[in-house]
Each structure stands twice: as structure tokens, then as C-alpha cells.
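I would like you to sit down with the pair of lines that follows and say whether C-alpha cells and residues agree.
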Amino acid sequence: MRASAGAQTGPVSGPLDTTDAPAQPESGAPAPPVVEVTQGREATVGAMTVRRVLPRRLRRTVGAWCFADHMGPHLVTEQHGVDIGPHPHIGLHTVTWLLDGEILHRDSLGSEQVIRPGQLNLMTAGHGVAHSEEATGSYRGRLHGMQLWVAQPESTRHDPPAFEHHAELPRVSVGSGDGTVIVGSFGDVTSPARSDTPIVGVDGSLSPGASTWPLRADFEHALVVMSGSVAVDGEIVVPGQLAYLGQGRDELTLLATDPSRVLLLGGLPFEEPVLMWWNYVARTREEIGAAAAQWNAGDERFGVVTSPLPRIDSPLPIWRRTT
């Protein structure tokens, strides 16, 4: 059966509908230094709780970061918990980052990779790819993490798909805490992960007290609190919220009253117009309509994922529906 309009077919990779972002292409509009706290949209998908903090209707992108789902914490079993069957992507990188638990990734490139905390799965969709996200068959316990998308620029978004796994990433010490550089460069430390535009993603573990983080002033930044709470310029940020910090800061001071875990996202403002629908990141409605039709027809564009889970059909784009 085809998923209905706005159906939630899986938290780890989307999907998006007009609740999250308008069905019109838009480019990023950076602001000067601010603390703009927005509430994510909470949804229950199967037995998984997801807090979608990006995109929201008033904040579509942060640099090229265009999607952020905070999933869990939730208890999973060896066979159930993340049961996301094969589905397509175009024009984006998926960035999977876990704080607790394990997920099995399979894709149409033939990749089969278990991801664990502190490791990075990064899949590049380019012209088209499909993947599934599954229980590992061996892990039982708590699952907690982030699924993020990065919009690809015009120069690479039509290229072939790719997948990479990084078992180790560089770490940094900042004030009362330390962090892992997931993507991009932070200070003088650079992640080995691919990035097609200048971006940064840092997972920070904060002890109680103040930490001052160096930032690139030409980047816009945002902060997601994954556990605990953090004060930014006197504004308290808690899980389920995104604090947009604007552009023009060369440092950021965070005050944690309890042990906290935060995700710093940033990048040069993404000036290309972006249209996001379901699991697609594109520029025009025609591109998304063609991708949806090709996926549902089993076109070779997206390849085949070897998975025991059922394939997920693409819903009809909202602009093609009749009342």
C-alpha cells in the first residue's frame, strides 16, 4: 500500500511533509548573532519517539544542514526497534550519529554496516540511492541518537551515490567538556568524513560549568541539546529544541548546570534554493515528481537493497493531489 500524505514511514530517514517545510524551494536566510529557540515537532513512529528540530517552517537550513531528527532514547530488541524498509534519497548526505545502541545500515551500493556510538555512517545520495535501517539481530537495549541530512550543492548533487563508515573520529577538549568532530573542521581539528560544502558538526559532552567554543564567524550555527540542559546567552535550551545562533560569532559560551550532551551544527549559508519533500532534497517539483515515479516503478536509478523489510513506496507529492 502506498504511504498516504504526510505518513510517517520511518524516523531515521524522514520523511518530510509540509508540516516541516513549505512545498516551495527556498534558500537560507542567515541572521546576525541571535539565540532563536524553536520547539521541535514530536512524533511517534511505530514505538520510536522522534523530535524533529530541523527543518521547521521558520528555519529551513543551518548552512547546508537541512534535517535533524533526535530519536529516542528508546528500548529496542534484537529484531525490532528500527524497522525502516528500503526507501530512496536524492540530493543529500545522510549523517547517522548514535549516543547509545546499534543500527544496521544496508544500501543499494551493497553496503552492510552496523553503526555504534562514536562511529559515523555517512551516505551520499547524489543522483539516487536507496537504503534500509534495521535492528542488528544481536543488540538489545537503549537506542538514542541523531539522524541528519546535509543538502548537496549543484556541483555534486547529480553525481553517483557513495557510502563511508568512520569507526574513529578526532576529539577535542573545550573548557569543561570534550567533543567529537563528526564532520568538517573545528579549531585546528578536521574530520575525515566527506563534506561537499563548508560545514561543521561537533558532539560535545559537557560537565557542569562553562565552556567557550571557537567558531568561524562566516558560518551560521545552531545548537541541539540531546541530554541535560544548557544556557546560551541566558536562554535555557533543553532536548526537543533547536537554538539558532545566527552568523557572525567567533566564539560560543555554554553553561551547563548538569552533565549534558549537545550537538553543534554550522556552515556557510547555503544560498541555493532547496525543495524538500518526503525523502528527497531537490530544486524543483519536477525533479521530485520524477524521482517518486521512478522509485515506485522500480527504476534502476535507485538500485536494489537486499533487506528482509518491505520496500516503502513514495507518496504522491502534495502538488499532484486532487481534493
